[in-house]
């Protein structure tokens, strides 16, 4: 098994602090490691004619807890500007899509998996059995006792919620 090499900005550096001070560097690293995902999300936002797309930086509350997460930051981008920033050629998207559809139309009837090679600009198509990916089991979350709990807010010292409750909204409209 080959050991995975950590990015330099993760070694000996609090990457959460790096996110606060050098968000562009964090985005550049994510773009390098996950260019396909970012391009896919940007293409989806463009196809949906969205005015704004938001990227969230999320971390596990605890490294061993796969279910509880904390949102570190959320950044909004205009899809066309973000596409230009990540060098996504929007006019080329439809050509690639057409090429994949043409290739799939030549295949025999069946079930296939389209896989993008993460390190190369290459896509592979594999034929799989008709019952592939069908299973009867369900993944269950950790029992509540085993989950890491977020720190409890002190009622006297905690910040007030910026979102009004239904009762507060009704009272505000009744007074107006």
Automatic annotation (TrEMBL):
Q: Which domain of life is it from?
A: Eukaryota
Region annotation Disordered: residue ranges?
136-176
List GO terms (cellular component aspect). Answer: eukaryotic translation initiation factor 3 complex
Q: Residue spans with biased composition (Acidic residues)?
A: 136-145
Which keywords fit this entry according to its UniProt record? Cytoplasm, Initiation factor, Protein biosynthesis, RNA-binding
Basic and acidic residues: compositionally biased ranges: 167-176
Q: Which GO terms describe its molecular function?
A: RNA binding; translation initiation factor activity
Query: What Pfam families has UniProt attached to this entry?
Result: eIF-3_zeta
Can you say what this protein is called?
Answer: Eukaryotic translation initiation factor 3 subunit D
**Species of provenance:** Liquidambar formosana (Formosan gum)
